[in-house]
Amino acid sequence: MYTVKVRNSIMIAHSLPDSFFGPAQHMHGATYVVDVTFSSEKLDPHNVVIDIGKAKDITNDVLHLLNYKNLDELPQFKNKLTTTEFMAKYIHDKIKAKIETFFKGQISVCLGETHDAWASYSGA
Q1: How far apart are CA 70 and CA 37, in angstroms?
Q2: What is the strand order of the sheet 2-14 is part of?
Q3: Looking only at Cα atoms, what is the longest distance across the chain?
Q4: Residue of 66, 61, 54 whose CA lies nearest to 101
Q5: CB atoms within 10 A of CB 36
Q6: Strand partners of residue 60
Q7: Which of 5, 83, 119, 123 meets the CB 3.0–4.6 Å disulfide criterion with 37?
Q8: β-strand pairing of 106-114 with 117-123
């Protein structure tokens, strides 16, 4: 399996309004380190998994829409618990929609919430 990984970060605010989340049920901020890994069993005709510049640009475009935003105020997250796991899949799906015409491999999005806590989502 071949892989290409790009990294960026975003700062968001949100709340998780359920007692399950303890203090995180109240408004708080998070800075996510975002790793997006593109995987493929074979290289394309240019001997790459995906053009790294294109992977970075697409990732940046998706993250730009979330950076410095209060997720509680965005209509796409109304009545959603925007957990780290949920956000990893959300970012994955947005990236996938932008590359599905030319990339057929697997995408994995990993969000580092702190230096010792990460959540991710992988899918085709």
Answers
A1: 26
A2: 69-70, 2-14, 28-40, 106-114, 117-123
A3: 52
A4: 54
A5: 23
A6: none
A7: 5
A8: antiparallel
Tokens coding 24? 């995180």
| Separation CA 113–CA 118 (nearest Å) | 6
pLDDT at 124: 78
Question: Which pTM was predicted?
Answer: 0.96
Beta strands in the chain (DSSP E): 2-14, 28-40, 69-70, 106-114, 117-123
| Residue 10, Cβ density class (10 Å: 0-12 exposed, 13-18 middle, ≥19 buried) | buried
Q: What is the pLDDT along the chain (124 residues), one digit of tens a residue?
A: 999 999 999 999 999 999 999 999 999 999 999 999 999 999 999 999 999 999 999 999 999 999 999 999 999 999 999 999 999 999 999 999 999 999 999 999 999 998 999 999 999 7
Q: Is the dihedral of CA 53, 59, 61, 67 positive or negative?
A: negative
Structure tokens at 122: 């992988």
